Amino acid sequence: MQDQIAALEQEIMATTLADAAALEVYRRQYTGKNGIIAALFETFRALPGPEKAAIGKPLNTLKQLAEQKEREARESLAARQPLKDQPADLTLPAAPHAQGSRHPIYDVERRIIAIFERIGFTVADGPEVETDWHNFTALNFDPGHPARDMQDTFFLKPEGMDQEYLLRTHTSSVQVRVMEAQKPPIRILSPGRVYRNETVSARAHCYFNQVEGLCVDKHISLADLRQTLDYFVKSIFGPQVRTRLRASYFPFTEISAEMDISCLICQGEGCTVCKHSGWVEIMGCGMVDPNVLANCGIDPEVYSGFAFGMGVERIAQLLYRVPDLRLYSQNDIRFLQQFARIQ
Question: What is the pLDDT of residues 48-75, one digit of tens each?
Fold first, then answer.
């Protein structure tokens, strides 16, 4: 058996382990559970005591030699194997890091604010969870007005509290808070998210973004409103766009109107976007109702004002020709990447 051990030692020393396949053959032949060395140890256990003393040391030396050769071969092969996430050529330049871009709704909102800031408007903020007073009552909504119905408004009643709250349906609630806290002159914008209990579709969503404006001072007239909105429209859509005001109704303004612009697609000639009318509605506006001023502690005999409100998604649709409102909130990277080139 000693001669067999010596021969195996020479054989192991002469074996070349150049690749993983050769290493696997070596493992099965020599160091594996069914290999030659394991078989020698089975034979060794059956030997009588005197022979074990003579065979034990060289057999252990053979095992250590075989295992060391296998271990060194594995380390050598691993060192030559490139890392999974590392290029073979470490001198290659790194992969470019793609920078993010602003969301189109945020970008349009910033553009709207920047235009009005140039003519003296400042930004005011307020809570999205509101009271009935700030969202409805102070704005001259009758108790039976349809907007108070559960079909339109998300009402909230926190546990342990008697007062009922709601998710604001417009940012006009911010205007009420400003008029309660500040004396005229007032010239503010109130951008933010609002909520309506509506079925989500290509043309409607249960939440969207608004920018509302308020100007209160002495001798404010409808002409001031018209000139302000004309300036905004021509600044964001271009000087060639025409505007018009149509009579409408809102509880918090009197007189009330809706502003239309000449269709950007057909330049007023008539198409499916403008329903062949040549005009597209972009916002509601009007002179602040005297009752609203009085509710906020402002004397309507001394002061007057105008207000307007627009949906940011609506303006973005006209600028970018996006047909489906849901795309703005789905976070589809393919959709959002288009706007990185525009900004």
Answer: 877 777 788 888 888 888 888 888 888 8
